[in-house]
Amino acid sequence: MTKVFEKSPAFFDTFTRKPSMQKTTHYCPGCGHGTLNKIIADQIAELGLQDQAIFVGPVGCGVFIYYYFESASVSAAHGRASAVATGVARANPDSVTISYQGDGDLAAIGTSNAIHAANRGENMIVFFVNNNIYGMTGGQLAPTTLIDQTSTTSPTGRSIVNDGYPLKMAEMMAGLEAPTLVARVGVNTPKNVRQATKVIKKGLEVQRDKKGYVFIEVLSQCPTNWKKDPKDSCDWIDEVVCQQYPLGIFKDLVDERGEVKRRAERVEFDALAEQLGLTTDDEDNTQKIEMLQDELRFKFAGFGGQGILSLGMMVSQLSMERNMEVTWLPSYGPEMRGGVANCSVVVGKKAIGSPAVENPHVLVALNRPSLEKFGPLVAKDGLIIYNSSLIDQVPDTLSGRVYPLAATDLASEAGNVKAANVVVLGFVAQKTGMFSLADLEGFLSETFKKPALLEINLKAARAGWDVAEKV
Ligand code: SF4
Q: How remote is the CA of residue 224 from the centroid of ligand 1, in Å?
């Protein structure tokens, strides 16, 4: 058994977070997190679970647990640890999954994730560190803040009328049918540490034996934000916090519960693709990006109201239907009509690293400011298509292949100037080789249900396609 003042073997020998802090954690002096980490580590080591343990870390003061525990770990987005832990536990049924969350993380932004994981009886142990305040962000009111407790956002104290009652998570979790063990413990006195150690050990055994969900709420000191010294903080837990959050075991069905078995789903991607009909034919579609090997980066720009965002959306949808990777990133000013608008679209054969497009391979500029702004940024071997119906001056600094396209005039001839974006779509499809005319016609037939509108758009697409074939 590890002695009280010995470093647990379940911790890393050195903590690599900061060269100056290789032996110490980032927690403030007197913080309850450190004591809790030590208890968990000791019990993991004692039960021999280190190789099975997978920690899911939160956002908040507990964020750096992956620097301390020498086990597998995953960091979750704010409030999502219980949901991430669900995935971890199901994908790794032999693991001991540990979700470590604070009160902002679990009882505010992540309440629904936490309750549903508990209600499903997932095989995980959740440590809910309740220090009645937002610690990392500087002491704001939390759902767990005590009645009358002051915080930076409740300077006169928490009022029931204004802020509601402190959220008693352990009692709430115990009210659900699925959890196996629910308790509230403290780490502020030797007596409470001994009791917490017993409960934590039992909770980890439940995980070892796959007996379902365990929730352990830990009343933890936050001397920094409580503005008390460490000793007064420990006393305050006994004298004040425990009056509103009584310690105890609220539910214990450990002896009654058996092993909860869930099948770990293994996805056979080839079989799935075949079932969805995503076979060789579809792979051929990705070959249609002819201009570049793997990826095409588009910038569509013009005035709001010219259908710029829809044009990007159409290219994105057509590409998605052909199993390409796609991102679509709109950007527009406060005025949607008449203001500047642009969108960046990236289409690739492989996963896309960033949706931002700084140096487009293809620029479509439907007005002059767009051509002047983005034209010089186009790659040397890129394509620039500008709306020659509205742009009569072209900067002489442009590189790449520059094509005038009288998009507005052609759309007007097709029946409606608003179809200028579809004229461009036809032109882009032909010039890049991404989509056939039949692809476009099929897509437009799905998109426009009114026959009159469909006819205009089919004409517009064909007009753009025909111009592209000739230039
Ligand atoms: S702010 Fe509070 S909870 Fe966070 S590390 Fe410091 S004492 Fe601990």
A: 6
What local confidence, expressed as pLDDT, does residue 89 receive? Answer: 96
> E-assigned strands of 177-247?
181-186, 214-219
Q: How far is the CA of 346 from the centre of ligand 1 (A)?
A: 43
User: Which residue out of 101, 224, 234 has the highest number of ligand 1 atoms within 8 Å of its CB and is therefore the one to mutate?
Assistant: 224
Query: Residue 346, class by beta-carbon neighbours within 10 Å (0-12 exposed, 13-18 middle, 19+ buried)?
Result: buried
Looking at domain 19-252, its CATH architecture is: 3-Layer(aba) Sandwich (3.40)
**Domains 19-252 and 283-470 in one fold:** no
Q: 464 by DSSP, 3-state: which?
A: helix
Determine which residue's CA is closest to atom 8 belonging to ligand 1. 31
pLDDT, residue 357, reads: 93
Q: Whose CA is nearest to atom 1 of ligand 1?
A: 135
**Residue to mutate (ligand 1; options 136, 231, 241; most atoms within 8 A of CB):** 136
SS3 411: helix
Please state the atom number of ligand 1 nearest to the C-alpha of residue 220. 3
Query: How far is Cα 94 from Cα 11, in angstroms, rounded to an integer?
Result: 21
Structure confidence at residue 293 (pLDDT) = 59
pLDDT of residue 4: 72
Domain ranges of the chain: 19-252, 283-470
**395-428: b or e for each residue (b if 16 or more CB lie within 10 Å)?**
eeebebebbbbbbbbbbbebebbbbbbbbbbbbb
Q: What is the pLDDT of residue 21?
A: 83
Beta strand 72-75 with 340-348: parallel, antiparallel or unpaired?
unpaired
Mean pLDDT by groups of 10 residues along the chain of 471 residues: 81 88 91 97 97 96 94 95 97 95 96 98 98 93 97 96 97 98 98 98 98 98 96 98 98 96 72 66 42 79 86 93 91 59 91 91 92 88 91 84 94 93 94 90 91 94 94 87
Q: How far is the CA of 428 from the centre of ligand 1 (A)?
A: 56
Superfamily of domain 283-470: Pyruvate-ferredoxin oxidoreductase, PFOR, domain III (3.40.920.10)
pLDDT of residue 283: 43
Q: How far apart are CA 326 and CA 62, in angstroms?
A: 35
Helix ranges (H only) for 228-268 are 230-236, 242-244
Please spell the DSSP secondary structure of 175-187, one letter per residue: TSSS-SEEEEEE-
Closest to 126 measured CA to CA, from 249, 216, 35: 216
Ligand 1: residue of 24, 28, 231 to mutate (most ligand atoms within 8 A of CB) is 28
